[in-house]
């Protein structure tokens, strides 16, 4: 009997592209919009909306490379739109030029009152609105004409990397600016099909589950009216419901999915654009949380939160609400996701002093994990510094880029030069930009090195570097694979919850010797041991001063603090050598006598240990 797989696959692909996807929006009508080109650097909202806007049409060019154009969008929802199982959305295509989810034009959507709604990116182009027939639309879009610097190769020379050499010619034309009526059952059906279509492709030809899914997709197409997808979508979902309800194998790999938007604080764009990228991604995340109670988002780098405090204070206040809910999770405890090979021990200690100090002051929490998914190399001294800073977990996926040496473990104890150990995880999904596809989930299950001893790994999902972070499609994929036959199971929760679960699973994790990923490390000499001890003591003292903790903490003391535990008027020093402290709510206080004394003791101990080592 001939294998029908190829025929069913071709039929399903055509059905999705020609019938299902176009039916997601029942109705679409164009919006009216005007524009104003910012003559120089980006300007605040209040200044932008006070300008005189010129008429603009779809297809017109806008802005020079690295420029900014403000669009004023107006319109009215047609009075005859049927709102049953539907939602009004604004649809925006700024003229996206390539297949990249980021690295190009982006936009931030504002209300006339100056409230940020969400962002616009190449794969996140819809702005949901809580309005109905006859209601007016009045919005502003702050559009950034960031050129596609990455192109076909991020390493190719290009004049577009700098404002001085990129020229004045516009490199974008607007594509779409419409009001759309999203058909929710059709959209949900599209997510069902995407999940099942990805699943059968990962299953072996001998598996009955594979044939079952293919037959189900074929029955779906037979059930739907190709000329009226909207009225038959619910019947189609009923066909697929048994396939999606079948529970996962008891031995299926378990993945903890953590929302993520990796944003390089300094890379292929001006720093002011990094600040805007953070605001866009964070606004998307906050919007997504409003309709998805299980969705969590992890963000490292205190610097990026500090930028929000300075440039987008209202956005930071909204973030703080979600931090208290446990939904927006600060991670890492460092000022930025730093390199760890070139900086010395003092610089690394200050990363934690500044980072943890900020998280405690602003959010009342101290992250227990170090989060460095993209740093190019890791010093063999890092476990010692991590432990001295009060952290207990470490995560990165960068070693998966290694073309020569394959790491033997994904979850293990990383042992540093002085014998310090930190519980470490390398996500076997081998990316920090997952979309939670079946291909990615099965890769994690297939490659996971701790099989037989443990069965859990972490997957960071969301578009980074201007892609806007997680999307509603990704959250939908996580929900459908929570407990699905043939698929690894997926649970959306926090990195800390994952590490605690992984520790419980792996009762005796393997220990790796002290090695830097860039060079080998010699055995510690007596002098090196003495210096290591002094560095650890100084780092611990700095971290304690930053957090306002007493010198010793009970092992049972919780790491999470409520904002009320940050006492008004109490001094929180950035490090033992700073000349000023942070004393909420009075900035600019002088360093306390206590912190100066502590610094002197650390310095004295360090000197005496060095003398004894000699």
Provide a concise account of the structure shown:
Helices cover 35% and strands 17% of the residues. With 614 residues, the protein is of the alpha/beta class.
Question: How are the elements arranged and paired?
Answer:
Layout (H helix, E strand, L loop, with lengths): L4 H16 L4 E6 L1 E6 L7 H5 L4 E2 L12 E9 L9 E8 L12 E5 L5 E5 L5 E3 L7 E9 L31 E8 H19 L5 H16 L5 H17 L8 E6 L11 H20 L6 E3 L2 H10 L1 H13 L2 E3 L14 H19 L5 E3 L10 H7 L4 E3 L15 E5 L5 E5 L12 H10 L8 E6 L10 H9 L8 E4 L2 H11 L5 E2 L13 H22 L24 E2 L7 E2 L10 H21 L1
Parallel strand pairs: 11-18, 11-19, 12-13, 14-15, 15-17, 16-20
Antiparallel strand pairs: 1-10, 2-3, 2-4, 4-9, 5-8, 5-10, 6-7, 6-9, 16-17, 21-22
Helix pairs in contact: 1-4, 3-4, 3-5, 3-12, 4-5, 6-8, 7-8, 9-14, 10-14, 14-15
Mean pLDDT: 86
The portion of residues forming beta strands comes to 15-25%
CATH topology of the largest domain: 7-stranded beta/alpha barrel
**Sheet with the most strands, sense and barrel status:** 6 strands, antiparallel
Which secondary-structure class do the elements indicate?
alpha/beta
Q: Give the number of helices.
A: 15
Number of domains: 3
Shape-level CATH architecture of the largest domain: Alpha-Beta Barrel
Low-confidence stretches: 517-614
Percent helix, as a range, is: 25-40%
Pfam families: Ams1-like_1st, Glyco_hydro_38N
Biased composition (Basic and acidic residues): 443-453
GO biological process, one term: mannose metabolic process
Protein name: Alpha-mannosidase
